[in-house]
């Protein structure tokens, strides 16, 4: 047995540049709210947010290029060095070249974190376009002042004065920064801090809907309370992990095996790992930790719903990849039983409940639950005893591709939802027309929006020539490769069943005449249209030409 070499504490500030750009812009945005006139606040916040996200994306690409040129698999951003996993075999990734030592690593820059940040930033750029847009009535999706009581004279005064809740932009930037840190977190304490940084702004943003404000506030309260419980369970899991290994590092159990007698801590490690997974499964909306999902998706402002559905899922799943790779694989038998129960329940509940929904936002909520179940099959394949290093590599690539395809389609779909509005008998434009019946005849009222929505729904259903098909195929392939054939069969059958409610909406849009003129497609400033078109192009491109993206992702680990 060799003694590990310890190195001095060091911070590679350049490696954290993308995160600093986003969080720095969020801080500046907060100062803008305090010192800039409300008349110019909105364009300043929009410009600052889009510039920050675009600059962070450029910085991530630059850091990825530098990582490939240097030939390093990972750079620790705080103290150093961890041994390779015993089953490591993915050259050029953090799985092989993460530095060695007993110190806890706060953040790590590697191919997984950088590609994950690309997915999050692309989704955020599209979502921010939808957030910033306003309809022909000069209304945005957000309340004039979220602090006023719904229906009160103060609310009416703020609305008539044309005030705008521009605080949403720095809060959304803070949430984006938390998501980015989540993909890089390499110890449990940092993981928890990133979890709270991304969650707390979302709790507030969920309550800022311009219309149906009581529903939005109820949804936000449910999200906050259940999120607090899940965070407490995550922290208790961290305590069990520390009790079992003496460290908060995700590699603590591995070090215990490598550097000395393991002792009888397997049960404590299994309990701690499962409790930490509960905290992460809550974020992806897996059953039975999903009860917040339909209510929050329905009540939150629609742009926030799309942002949350795409970004939070990507961050939580990539954090789960690290937990599975380093920790869960050591107690695989216990975790595997737990995951099978969760995966089956998630797929079945998402599918069955989706079939009976009459509200499009709740339908997309249960759709997201079913998709979480599909992705979990690939997560459970990571370091599976019946698999290999190559299968682990392919599983991680499948997860990343699925998250990218699902993220852009989700933001595009919710962007369309923001433009389909209710109309009263006097012709006044009201809130979003979320009842499925209101979408009847959309193909005639707005052929382009109906066509875009059809592509997104086909992608969700996993129809060939869309990104969703390639994502599902890769995920199911990872499941079959690791002997999870039963799960894959259930997932394939459920995927066919979910197509029923997607095609039901397509049938409404194209083969039903509108019963009344109670719904209308509104014009906007155009930013939502830009986001929808970009999401549409990405969805089709990922389905028709998936090779370059898959080669890029897999090639990052070679």
Number of DSSP-assigned strands: 5
What structural category do the secondary elements indicate? mainly alpha
> Can you list the strand order of the major beta sheet?
4-3-5
Instruction: Name the beta content range.
Output: under 5%
For the largest beta-sheet, the strand count, sense and barrel status come to:
3 strands, antiparallel
Report on this model:
The protein has 558 residues and is mainly alpha-helical. The protein is built from 21 helices and 5 strands. The chain has a 3-stranded antiparallel beta sheet with strand order 4-3-5, with no helix packed on it. It has a two-stranded antiparallel ribbon with strand order 1-2.
In short:
With 558 residues, the protein is mainly α. The chain has helices spanning 17-35, 38-70, 94-97, 111-132, 153-160, 168-184, 188-205, 213-245, 252-259, 266-284, 292-299, 302-326, 332-355, 360-380, 389-417, 442-445, 447-461, 467-481, 485-511, 527-544, 547-555; strands spanning 74-76, 108-110, 420-423, 429-432, 519-521.
What is the strand and helix layout of this fold?
Elements: H1 17-35, H2 38-70, E1 74-76, H3 94-97, E2 108-110, H4 111-132, H5 153-160, H6 168-184, H7 188-205, H8 213-245, H9 252-259, H10 266-284, H11 292-299, H12 302-326, H13 332-355, H14 360-380, H15 389-417, E3 420-423, E4 429-432, H16 442-445, H17 447-461, H18 467-481, H19 485-511, E5 519-521, H20 527-544, H21 547-555
Antiparallel strand pairs: 1-2, 3-4, 3-5
């Amino acid at each position: 047995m060799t003694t590990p070499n310890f190195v001095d504490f060091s911070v590679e500030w350049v490696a954290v540049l993308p995160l600093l750009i986003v969080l720095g812009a969020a801080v500046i945005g907060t100062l803008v709210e305090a010192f800039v006139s409300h008349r110019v606040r909105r364009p300043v916040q929009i410009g600052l947010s889009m510039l920050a996200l675009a600059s962070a994306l450029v910085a991530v690409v630059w850091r990825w290029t530098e990582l490939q040129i240097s030939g390093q698999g990972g750079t620790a951003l705080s103290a150093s060095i961890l041994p390779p996993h015993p089953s490591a075999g993915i050259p050029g990734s953090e799985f092989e070249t993460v530095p060695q030592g007993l110190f806890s690593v706060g953040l790590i820059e590697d191919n997984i974190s950088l590609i994950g940040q690309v997915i999050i930033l692309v989704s955020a750029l599209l979502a921010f376009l939808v957030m910033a847009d306003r309809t022909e009535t000069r209304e945005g999706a957000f309340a004039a002042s979220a602090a006023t009581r719904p229906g009160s004279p103060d609310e009416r005064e703020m609305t008539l004065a044309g005030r705008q809740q521009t605080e949403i932009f720095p809060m959304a930037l803070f949430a984006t920064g938390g998501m980015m840190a989540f993909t890089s977190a390499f110890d449990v304490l940092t993981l928890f801090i990133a979890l709270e940084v991304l969650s707390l702004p979302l709790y507030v943003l969920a309550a800022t809907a311009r219309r149906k404000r009581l529903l939005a506030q109820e949804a936000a309260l449910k999200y906050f309370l259940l999120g607090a419980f899940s965070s407490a369970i995550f922290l208790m899991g961290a305590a069990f992990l520390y009790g079992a290994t003496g460290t908060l590092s995700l590699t603590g159990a591995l070090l215990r095996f490598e550097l000395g007698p393991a002792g009888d801590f397997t049960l404590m490690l299994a309990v701690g790992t499962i409790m930490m997974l509960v905290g992460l499964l809550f974020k992806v909306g897996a059953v039975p930790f999903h009860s917040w999902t339909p209510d929050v998706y329905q009540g939150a402002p629609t742009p926030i719903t799309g942002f949350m559905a795409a970004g939070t899922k990507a961050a939580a799943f990539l954090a789960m990849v690290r937990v599975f790779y380093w920790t869960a694989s050591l107690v695989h038998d216990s975790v595997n039983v737990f995951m099978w129960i969760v995966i089956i329940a998630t797929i079945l509940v998402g599918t069955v409940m989706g079939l009976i929904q009459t509200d499009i936002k709740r339908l997309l909520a249960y759709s997201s639950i079913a998709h979480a179940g599909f992705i979990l099959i690939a997560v459970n394949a990571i370091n599976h005893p019946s698999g290999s290093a190559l299968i682990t590599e392919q599983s991680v690539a499948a997860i990343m591709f699925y998250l990218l395809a699902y993220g852009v389609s989700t933001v595009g779909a919710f962007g369309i939802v923001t433009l389909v509005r209710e109309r009263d008998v006097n012709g006044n434009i009201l809130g979003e027309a979320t009842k499925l019946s209101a979408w009847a005849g959309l193909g005639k009222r707005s052929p382009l929006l109906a066509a875009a929505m059809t592509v997104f729904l086909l992608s969700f259903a996993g129809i060939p020539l869309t990104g969703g098909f390639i994502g599902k195929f890769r995920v199911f392939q990872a499941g079959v490769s690791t002997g999870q054939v039963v799960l894959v069969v259930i997932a394939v059958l459920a995927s066919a069943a979910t197509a029923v409610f997607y095609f039901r909406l397509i049938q409404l849009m194209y083969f039903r005449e509108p019963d009344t003129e109670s719904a209308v497609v509104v014009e906007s400033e155009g930013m939502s249209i830009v986001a929808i078109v970009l999401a549409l192009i990405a969805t089709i491109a990922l389905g028709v030409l998936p090779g370059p993206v898959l080669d890029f992702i897999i090639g990052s680990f070679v």
